[in-house]
Structure formats: C-alpha cells, structure tokens
C-alpha cells in the first residue's frame, strides 16, 4: 500500500491535467472504442498513477449495466409522493426510528462531532442501500472507467477515475471491489473522490465509518449544528450537495424530520 501523500499527489496531478484540457483519450458512446480508450488513458496516467493502479485499470471491462443505469434514472422524474412511495419511505422511517434508539450512542457521538443529527443520516442510509442490504454488485473500477470513457459525463468521471486509482494505492479499492452502478461504494454510496475527500478512515462497508463519513461530508458542505434542514432552512444546502435531484433532496429532508420526530 502506498501512503496518502502519494494519493494526494495523484489527484493533484490529475486535476492539473484536466484543468489544462490535456485529456486526449477519445470518449465514446458504445463499447466499441473502450479498449482503445483504456490504452490511451493508461498512457496518459503513467507517471501520475502507480503501476499497480494502471494494472487495475487495464483489467476493467465496459460495463453495460452501468450505462443502462445511467440512461434509466426515471425515478428522479417522479412526483415527490410517487418517489417516496417507490423508495419505501414509510419503511425507512419506521426502521430509522428503531435504529436511532438502538444505536443512540453512535448517533449521539456523530452529532457531537459533526453537528448532524440522526434523522438525515438514517434517511440517506435507508434511501441509498436499505441500511446496507443493497450495496450493488457492479465492478467498481469498471463502472467508473466506463463512465469516464462515455461522452455524456466524461470530464466528471475522469476525475472520479483518477480518485479511484489513488484508492487502489491506498488499498481501499481492488480490481474485485463491487458496488453500485455508477461506482459508489459502501453503506451510504460514496463516489471515489468523496471517499478521498470525506472518508474518515476504514472501510465504508462498515456502517459506523460510513455514517461518520456522511456526516463529515454534510459538515464540509456547510451543515450547521442546530439549524433546520428543510427546504429554505440553512442546512438544506448541505443535503443538496449530497444529491442533485430535487425530489431526492426533499425526500431526505422529510424522512429525516420524521425519524427525528419533528
């Protein structure tokens, strides 16, 4: 395993390349060009990513499951009521309240450290993975590499891919890591760059680590202890930082408030 200083250097170098517009590997919209793109990307990454990370990249394959998921996010177009019903909001609220009681010491320690109460954390946990029951079964590196190659959001996921390569060096990701279709991992589904920036140490497959990391993310996005988190209130902006879909943001706020007893 290579130390975190090297990982930071990888990210800094990759961001510099992206900022300078030097990314030359040709994106595509089908599987046909993926292997060629991968070789070009690997050539560009040498010197900024370790041999072990490059080797992991070269072992990736085009993920049709990832592309299907990326093109099929229809639930975000539902009304708030439809979305909450589809995501099982009543069950999340019921179980969330029970977990808030049964794991009170954990949530109290998180709130003391980050200022984030149990409600929104449990809402996110329940919405993302049904409290860890459904974390995904898509190869993580293949998912991120596929989206870096895909022209639709190539720049965003190129950044995520460099972060994933740094996580390979840290031992957080391996060629066999599996998670959600867009490359998210752990109980609350962190993308690679968020693992680097907000992970609090340890595996996000550990619920306590994932919840602390999620609270750290929200605090870094402006969460203020004691302030409200409904639309129009100070902490709603932090929830907006978690997910760009407005229906998802409102659902987290509502479910979180019901878990917190508001």
Automatic annotation (TrEMBL):
Entry annotated with the keyword Plastid: no
Domain Transglycosylase SLT intervals: 34-229
One MF annotation (Gene Ontology) recorded for this entry: peptidoglycan lytic transglycosylase activity
Gene3D superfamilies the record matches: 1.10.530.10, Bacterial muramidase
Superkingdom of this protein's organism: Bacteria
Signal peptide location: 1-24
Keywords in alphabetical order: Signal
InterPro entries per UniProt: Lysozyme-like_dom_sf, MltB-like, SLT_2
One GO-annotated biological process of the protein: peptidoglycan catabolic process
Keyword Aminoacyl-tRNA synthetase annotated: no
The protein's name in its UniProt record: Transglycosylase SLT domain-containing protein
Protein's organism: Methylobacterium frigidaeris
């Amino acid at each position: 395993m290579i130390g975190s200083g090297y990982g930071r250097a990888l990210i800094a170098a990759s961001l510099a390349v992206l900022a300078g517009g030097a990314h030359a590997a040709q994106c595509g919209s089908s599987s046909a060009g993926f292997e060629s793109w991968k070789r070009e990307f690997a050539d560009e990454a040498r010197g900024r990513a370790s041999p072990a990370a490059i080797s992991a990249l070269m072992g990736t394959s085009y993920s049709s499951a990832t592309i299907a998921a990326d093109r099929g996010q229809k639930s975000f177009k539902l009304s708030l009521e439809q979305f909450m019903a589809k995501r099982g909001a009543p069950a999340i609220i019921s179980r969330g309240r029970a977990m808030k009681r049964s794991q009170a010491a954990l949530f109290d320690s998180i709130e003391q450290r980050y200022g984030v109460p149990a409600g929104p954390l449990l809402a996110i946990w329940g919405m993302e993975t049904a409290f860890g029951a459904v974390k995904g079964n898509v190869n993580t590196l293949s998912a991120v590499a596929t989206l870096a190659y895909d022209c639709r959001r190539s720049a965003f996921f190129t950044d995520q891919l460099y972060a994933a390569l740094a996580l390979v060096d840290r031992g957080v990701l391996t060629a066999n890591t599996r998670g959600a279709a867009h490359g998210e991992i752990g109980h609350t589904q962190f993308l690679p760059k968020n693992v680097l920036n907000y992970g609090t140490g340890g595996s996000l497959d550990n619920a306590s680590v994932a919840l602390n990391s999620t609270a750290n993310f929200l605090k870094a996005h402006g969460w203020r202890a004691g302030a409200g988190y409904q639309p129009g209130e100070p902490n709603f902006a932090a929830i907006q930082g978690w997910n760009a879909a407005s229906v998802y943001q409102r659902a987290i706020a509502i479910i979180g408030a019901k878990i917190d007893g508001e």
